[in-house]
Amino acid sequence: MRKFNKILIFSFVGIIVISSVWFNFFFISKNILNFEKNLFDAGKESDVIIVFNPGGWGTVSLEEAKDFNPIVNEIKKSLEEKNYKVSIVEYYRTKENFLGKLGSLREIISNFSKSSKIFAEKIELFINNYPERKIVMAGLSNGASFVDSTMENLEKKIDGVVSIELGAPFWGENIQRENTLKLKNEEDILARGDIGKLFISLVKAPFIWSYNNLKGEKTSFSEAMMITGHEYYWPEVEQEIASFVKEKF
Question: What is the spatial distance between Cα 121 and Cα 155, in angstroms, rounded to a whole number?
Fold first, then answer.
């Protein structure tokens, strides 16, 4: 039994080490270069670039993000109504697999200390090359935390860079910035930090996830948690975002 436990522990530690090495030395470097290329390509033809940072693990595309897609597209529409040419560039924080998620856990726990710093460097590089362009970093939930950490890592306030952050989890820093709009629903138990209700949601999630997937209803674990109030809809945030866009553009 002891031998089996040692093998189990060794295997677990090995997986953590492998996922960490993969994430830090392979994924981040390749991912940031892809983002840089897409960002600079967008800068050649657009006045404003919206950088899309989804919630969860940060692996969902704009097209598949049923929660955040409508809001980001409405932000784009409001900027286009002001006669800006706008592009949306997606940024993925990890890969949609077990290794990718395990490897990115340290970043989530550390409030994206490493990846947001590298990301901020690319944002600064872009603005230095295209000083007439503007960037809107839009983030939901964990994506909002990542965006906020990026704003903190920018060496100085850059007038051409603003952020719109929705539903950032409670454990992030609550620093107010001139170029940042932070929105949180009063009922959002994740943003508010209602530990008791979050714990109940976490306990129920595996059963909901298993039941739905057995029925053939593809459900992510985050969806199965059914976090009360952690949904954001355009009609509810339109006024504040519209006022922010009007002020900054």
Answer: 9
CA distance 59 to 14: 24
H or E segment to which residue 11 belongs: helix 2-22
Bridge partner list, 184: none
Q: What is the pLDDT of residue 245?
A: 94
What residues contact residue 107 under an 8 Å CB cut-off, 6+ apart? 23, 93, 94, 113, 114, 115
> Residue ranges per domain, the chain?
2-185+231-248, 194-230
Query: 2-185+231-248 maps to which CATH number?
Result: 3.40.50.1820
Q: If residue 140 lies in a helix (H) or strand (E), which one and from where to where?
A: strand 134-140
**What pLDDT does 112 receive?**
93
The H or E element that residue 104 is part of is helix 98-109
Task: Give the pLDDT confidence of 220-230 residue by residue, as tens digits.
Answer: 767 777 788 88
Distance of CA 216 to the CA centre of its chain: 28
pTM of the complete model: 0.90
List Cβ neighbours of 25 (8 Å cut-off, separation of 6 or more).
Answer: none
Spans in the chain with pLDDT lower than 50: none
Element at 151 (helix H, strand E)? helix 142-153
Q: What is the pLDDT of residue 6?
A: 53
